[in-house]
Each structure stands twice: as C-alpha cells, then as structure tokens.
UniProtKB/TrEMBL annotation:
Pfam families: UDPG_MGDP_dh, UDPG_MGDP_dh_C, UDPG_MGDP_dh_N. It catalyses: UDP-alpha-D-glucose + 2 NAD(+) + H2O = UDP-alpha-D-glucuronate + 2 NADH + 3 H(+). Pathway: Nucleotide-sugar biosynthesis; UDP-alpha-D-glucuronate biosynthesis; UDP-alpha-D-glucuronate from UDP-alpha-D-glucose: step 1/1. One of its GO terms (molecular function) is NAD binding. NAD(+) binds at D30, K35, T86, T121, E153, K264, R329. This is UDP-glucose 6-dehydrogenase. It comes from Epilithonimonas hungarica. The keyword Oxidoreductase applies. The active site is at C261.
Length: 437
C-alpha cells in the first residue's frame, strides 16, 4: 500500500519505518526542513533502539521517502496518517492546532479518495472536527479514522512490530476494510483489531494512559507509606503483583512519572472533564501527588546536609525521562536539577544519550560529565534520576574514591540495599528497608 505519514517524531518516524519494513511504500512529511534534509541523507533524528538499522534498510530498499511537500506525498497515497504534536495548552487542554492545520492543508490539496488516520492523542470529538475541516475545503470523498498509538519510547520499534492490539475507530466500512488490509500482517500473527466508533477510540487512549499514571502514583504513595510504617515496597509490590488481576507491570515506585505522554494526557483528560462539567477527582489527585513525588528526594538531601545545599556538589546520573530514550520531556531529572540549583547546589550530570537535549535548555547552568564515574569527582552526593542499566551494578570502590561523601539518593531503586550497606554508603531509595534476618 502507498502511505503518507505527516509528522516524523517518535510516533510518525517509527510507524513509517515499520510500515515500510512490512512492505509498504511510505512517504514521510515534516515541516522541519533540517530534519527532512537529514533523513534524506540517512540521519535518524531520534534515538530508538533498533530504529537506525531498520531505517537504513528501508531507504536502501526504496520503501521510505522524506519530503516537506505534503501535496507530493498525498498525490501518491491512499492512507494518510497524522502523527502530529498535541501539546498541552495553558489550561492543560490538548492543542489541536497542528492537527487541524494539516487537515486544512489536506482539504486544499486532496484530489481523490483518502483515508485520514489520526494517530495523535486527541480529545473526544477530534475526528469530527478533522472531518468538518476537510469537508469545508473539498467535495472529494474521504474518511477519517481514529487509530491511537500505544508505543512506549525506548521500545517503539518493538511495540510497533508487536502491538498488543490495534484500535480502529471508524463509522465507515470502506475505511475499516482498508485499515484491516493494512494491519493484516499483524492480525496474521494474532494481534486483535478492535473496531469501535471514533469517540470511544479517542477516549480509549486517554483512559489507558491515565490508568497507568494512576497505577504508578498509587504505588508511589504505598512506597511513601512503607517508609512511615517500616514495610518494604519491593515485597509489597511482589505480593500485590502476583494477583493477576493486578499484575506486576507499572508497579515500580520512584521519583514520579514523566515523558511526553502521561503528564500531558492526564492534564488533557482533566480538562476535557471540566469542559463537560465532570470533575475527575482521581486524576486531580494523581497529578498533584506526582508533582511532589518528582522532587521527594530533595528534602532528604537537605536533611542529610543539615538543612542547606548551598555550595554542595551534586552528581546526577540520568537525564532522560526513562531509560533507552533521549527524550527529556517532563523528565524528573529536570525538576530536581532546577530545585537543586535554586537551593544553591552545583550540578554535574551524566547521560550520554539525553545530554544534547538537556544542553539545549540548561546550557551552562550545569556541567556534563563524559562518563558516570567522572561525574562523581569531588561530589558531595549522587542523585539517580533515570534507570539506565549501566547504573545497576556500579563499582562502589571507585565511587567511594571519587566522592567527598559516600551518599546516594536513588530515585529509581537501582540496586539492592545490601549492596550499598556492604560498601558503607549512605543510601536513600524509595519505600524500601534493609531486611536482616
Ligand atoms: N511519543 C510517544 O511515545 C507517543 C506514543 C503514543 C502517542 N503519542 C502521541 O502522538 C503524537 C505525536 O507525538 P510524538 O512524540 O511523535 O511528537 P514529536 O513532537 O516527536 O513529533 C511531531 C513531528 O511533527 C512535525 N510537525 C509539526 N507540524 C507539522 C506539519 N504541519 N506538517 C508536518 N509535520 C509537522 C514536527 O516537526 C515533529 O517532527 C502526540 O499526539 C502524542 O501524544 C506519542
Ligand atoms: O512502574 C513504573 C513504570 C513507569 N514509570 C514511569 O512512567 C513514565 C512513563 O513510562 P512508560 O510508560 O514506560 O513510557 P512512555 O514512552 O511515556 O509510554 C507511555 O506513553 C505512551 C504515549 O502515549 C503510550 O503510547 C505508552 O503505551 C505508555 O506506556 C516514565 O517516567 C517512567 O519512569 C514508573 O515510575 N514506574
């Protein structure tokens, strides 16, 4: 099939590359000229495990193309995916200007029947607005489909190649048949297609993300309470998760959830609720708890240093909002660094993959170390903000040699408490206690 993808970010580029991988011809459109030029020259603009190899393979096979010209791509394709940003506006509502602008441009240029498939995360009713926008510009027939994306950053290629389900929100049988044909290589391997109306499909995406944000937040509260009552969250987590109605996933406590999706989507659903006169109290609480949780270790650091962080040198391991990505949107590391700087501390950070993105916003306010150990030179404490695997089994002897103080504040519960104790480190993690029997 010939496909256009509008927007080549995490969703668009990975969707485009994987659809090319299964044999389609894919035309990727972006307004960012530099990005498009780079991709034409083989530069992958984001970090996603497995993407680079697949990207080059499909360029070589002449199955994926890049352009800034929407019209050129539209003329060649029957199915048009929208993978455009829907960032939060000032009131938290999803900003639909990118999606509606492209809908408008499609209406202006479309010459024959198209299926417009929205992959962006959008509030209920957006498919209707896209339909109205296009219809106001043209008499050419078309259909609009809601097809929310559930990929996780860091596993985007794996998730796109092995989706848990494909949601198709459409009232048009013709469009549903085209989508079924497009996704047939996945249904073939047992992935269910769930057909529904556009509104239910749009809400499914917000409901799924908000539920996961609530699940994490609930566990963060349990972890905080564990500390009050002398329980260990790792054991509670295992005990709870073994009930398959609960499951083990997304029960890991830490310094809050971040990323480009959970914070934004919780806000957007809250805002949609308000517009309909519905008060999502659970989401209100989730948002507020997460804000506090993100910086919950800063007061601990202050206490450790007798109340002031003035002049203290704090090493931060990990800047990305989670491991295996260069994405720093709403990363807990940034909230912590901002607060540490406000409190007069100096920050030396280490994250090879996300460093460049942080430099763009923090510039010379902090310094960057070339490896995890040199970040510790004369550091008064270490704060771990991202669960990069390389932090799992560090060389404690080397750490002790480099640091002024043997103090670790671990926002991602990276290693067993026993390990820190054996190495005589002060070690504060989230909701755990040393079990000695
Ligand atoms: N990142 C994720 O993990 C993820 C997962 C599922 C769903 N989503 C949703 O998918 C959507 C896209 O997210 P993303 O993270 O890929 O965004 P992104 O910001 O990484 O990428 C968006 C791309 O769209 C381009 N763009 C903007 N206006 C354009 C226009 N008029 N024409 C062509 N290109 C244009 C931008 O230049 C950018 O390259 C959002 O609604 C998001 O909520 C994201
Ligand atoms: O047990 C857990 C699991 C995750 N997190 C945090 O939650 C955030 C989000 O993690 P994750 O869901 O793995 O990353 P995303 O790439 O943001 O993916 C989410 O958001 C995407 C965008 O909508 C959806 O497509 C995915 O299904 C959904 O998992 C990160 O800050 C993690 O550190 C925890 O604190 N504890």
């Amino acid at each position: 099939m010939n496909i256009t993808i509008v927007g080549t970010g995490y969703v668009g580029l990975v969707t485009g590359t994987t659809l090319a991988e299964i044999g389609n011809s894919v035309f990727c459109v972006d307004i960012d000229e530099k990005k498009v030029e780079g991709m034409k020259n083989g530069v992958v603009p984001i970090y996603e495990p497995g993407l680079e190899e697949m990207f080059h393979r499909n360029i070589q096979a002449n199955r994926i193309f890049f352009t800034t010209d929407l019209k050129e791509a539209l003329d060649k394709s029957e199915v048009i995916f929208l993978a455009l940003p829907t960032p939060p506006g000032e009131d938290g509502s999803a900003d639909l200007s990118y999606v509606l602008k492209v809908a408008n441009d499609i209406g202006d240029t479309m010459k024959d029947y198209k299926v417009i498939v929205n992959k962006s995360t959008v509030p209920v009713g957006t498919a209707d607005r896209v339909r109205q926008t296009i219809a106001s510009k043209t008499d050419v027939p078309f259909d609009v489909v809601s097809n929310p994306e559930f990929l996780r950053e860091g596993f985007a290629v794996e998730d796109c190649m092995n989706p848990s389900r494909v949601i198709i929100g459409s009232s048009s049988e013709k469009a549903r048949n085209i989508m079924a044909k497009l996704y047939q290589p996945f249904t073939n391997i047992g992935v269910p297609i769930i057909n529904m109306d556009e509104r239910s499909s749009e809400l499914t995406k917000y409901a799924a993300n908000s539920f996961l944000a609530v699940k994490i937040t609930f566990m963060n509260e349990i972890a905080n309470f564990c500390e009050k009552v002398g329980a260990d969250v790792d054991l509670v987590r295992l005990g709870m998760g073994s009930d398959d109605r609960i499951g083990h996933r997304f029960l890991f406590p830490g310094i809050g959830y971040g990323g480009s999706c959970f914070p934004k989507d919780v806000k957007a659903l809250l805002n949609s609720g308000k517009q309909e006169g519905y008060d999502f109290q659970l989401l209100e609480a989730t948002e507020s708890i997460n804000k506090t949780q993100k910086v919950i270790l800063v007061p601990e650091l202050e206490n450790y240093f007798g109340g002031s962080l003035q002049g203290k040198k704090i090493a931060v391991w990990g800047l990305a909002f989670k491991a295996n990505t260069d994405d720093i949107r709403e990363a807990s590391s940034l909230d912590n660094i901002k607060l540490l700087l406000e409190k007069g501390a100096q920050v030396v950070a280490y994250d090879n993959i996300a460093e460049e993105n942080v430099k763009k916003i923090l510039g010379d306010k902090i310094t960057f170390a070339k490896d995890m150990y040199s970040a510790l030179d004369n550091a008064d404490a270490l704060l771990i903000a991202t669960e990069w695997p390389e932090f799992k089994n560090p060389n404690f002897e080397l750490m002790a040699e480099k640091m002024n103080n043997k103090a670790i504040f671990d926002g991602r519960n990276m290693f067993p408490l026993e390990l820190a104790e054996q190495n005589k480190f002060f070690y504060k993690s989230i909701g755990r206690k040393l079990i000695t029997q």
